[in-house]
Amino acid sequence: xxxxxxxxxxxxxxxxxxxxxxxxxxxxxxxxxxxxxxxxxxxxxxxxxxxxxxxxxxxxxxxxxxxxxxxxxxxxxxxxxxxxxxxxxxxxxxxxxxxxxxxxxxxxxxxxxxxxxxxxxxxxxxxxxxxxxxxxxxxxxxxxxxxxxxxxxxxxxxxxxxxxxxxxxxxxxxxxxxxxxxxxxxxxxxxxxxxxxxxxxxxxxxxxxxxxxxxxxxxxxxxxxxxxxxxxxxxxxxxxxxxxxxxxxxxxxxxxxxxxxxxxxxxxxxxxxxxxxxxxxxxxxxxxxxxxxxxxxxxxxxxxxxxxxxxxxxxxxxxxxxxxxxxxxxxxxxxxxxxxxxxxxxxxxxxxxxxxxxxxxxxxxxxxxxxxxxxx
Length: 376
Prior knowledge:
- With 376 residues, the chain is of the alpha+beta class.
- The chain contains nine helices and 17 strands.
- The relative contact order is 0.14.
């Protein structure tokens, strides 16, 4: 059953250092130029900065995209022996780095490595004509890392040192995405608790809510999930693992095709999900399909809401309610040829939950997709 759903039931957690929010999310991709076009055209992210040989970076090219407070960084290796080449060989296109904006990168690195995290890059200063930024990185589940970004107010560059501002983007049309609500990680069998303990010990995060296989199951598959969060809940990381079921769960499928743990999806918040999803549909984004029967008793289950139930049925948007309000959500199909990474669009009207009432309908939709791939 779900635990710690209400704030009064949550475990006490104390941040060990100051995190201002998610600075950016970096993808390693096989062709950053083409990937940038996709996220600009399909999701409305504006291209605003670039780094590559033209800016003095010899080993990679990177395109920085933004919408609201969300920044995506798309990076492609230019050399066969670059670490990102190995990542792509193992995992395909996917999230490498959930970068966190901190006040002191050296402090964050010292505290986290001192509490058991494996260092990936020691604190170092990167600078150009616009000033300097301090960076440091640690490892987390799979090949995912967290980079601590200390960017002073005096830094005047468009993004990070060695990035140059790009011309005004006339292709991207924003769809209303505002900020990262949460980032979900998938791990293997019996790895969820150790990953949760990692975030509690290394970051001081607390266990926000947990779901077991009685909450998240269908007739065929099941999984377990625990959400960890920092003190102000600006950073929320649900961690999923497989549970015993009659067939292969979506988590098992992910871990198989990703060749290990990694980021399953990024939840992006909007204040008008009907508008955002309508625009994404018009841009050609494919979403999971929820059966019409889900909506037959939806009004009785969630009560009065501001949105039109008929419009939600047309767009296949899910609704759930907790003791603080309600939330709406919808999930894209995988964005890569491997059935791994996808995007969630979410709108919260006070609710702090993660859609427990939608789990069965959601995972049955995922199972239908698995079955078409022959992976159920």
